[in-house]
């Protein structure tokens, strides 16, 4: 027997006006009980189609949206665990985001890898926690067709592990992560002032043995501020390498030997020498 057409038209209960009102109530609730969170779409620079990753991706834009933490009693996931690789922070949570608000402020402006929806691999920044989270999965069918509509996204996110990605959004708070933790040596280069490129006309000091007339690319030298020793000492505060090295009785820069191997022996793994 067909559905009662006094209440619906066969495509689920709820008229267009009721669906619009339902979305308005959800957006108002998110604005009252939610948090201001930045959404940063990932830009793929050199995608590896074999491994399915991009080690040189970057984040050039940010969009401020209101989202709601669905996990109100703390982070889900395994939280802090210690395994053979050391300490890992696995803080997971779920963020509720209005579809209409995402379409208005992100979909119509940003270039997304998968158009029209939040993408797995994109990141969000939560000012309240001063932390980045990476989107692992986007649930777009929960709650399931209330009033015949799907008004929200639920973003399954986990704490993001920074891996030298470029962050150039123009928002100082967001870009500070790259300035503080990046180990990319190209961040320490600068273009030289004098000289002339044959093809581009841009200025740079002509190095003695530099003759790249085919491409006309500018020459670069490394800034003095970049040293390998500084990179070792300014590693992530979550790393324990320096502490472990200190406990072993040696440092990572000045003395790379330790007490495990006796380098005075000529052949420590072979037969005893006479």
Description:
The termini are far apart. This protein has helices spanning 16-33, 99-107, 172-181, 228-233, 241-248, and strands spanning 35-40, 58-59, 63-69, 76-83, 86-98, 123-126, 131-139, 152-159, 166-167, 189-191, 220-222. The protein is an alpha+beta fold and 274 residues long. The mean pLDDT is 76. It has two domains: 16-167, no CATH class; 183-274, no CATH class. The strands form three sheets. The protein has a six-stranded antiparallel barrel with strand order 1-3-5-8-7-6. A two-stranded parallel sheet has the order 2-9.
> What is the string of SSEs from the N terminus onward?
HEEEEEHEEEEHEEHH
How helix-rich are the residues, as a percent range?
A: 10-25%
Number of helices: 5
Mean pLDDT over all positions: 76
Strand content: 15-25%
Please identify the structural class as seen in this structure. Answer: alpha+beta
Give the distance, in angstroms, between the N- and C-terminal Cα atoms: 99 Å
Number of strands: 11
Total tally of structural domains: 2
Strand order of the largest sheet: 1-3-5-8-7-6
Rg measurement, Å: 27 Å
Unreliable runs, pLDDT <50, ≥5 residues?
A: none
Strand count, sense and barrel status of the largest sheet are:
6 strands, antiparallel, barrel
Shape descriptor reads elongated
Quick tags:
274 residues; alpha+beta; 2 domains; six-stranded antiparallel barrel; two-stranded parallel sheet; 5 helices; 19% helix
Short structural description:
The chain has 274 residues and is of the alpha+beta class. It has helices at 16-33, 99-107, 172-181, 228-233, 241-248, and strands spanning 35-40, 58-59, 63-69, 76-83, 86-98, 123-126, 131-139, 152-159, 166-167, 189-191, 220-222. The chain starts with 15 loop residues before the first helix and ends in a 26-residue tail after the last helix.
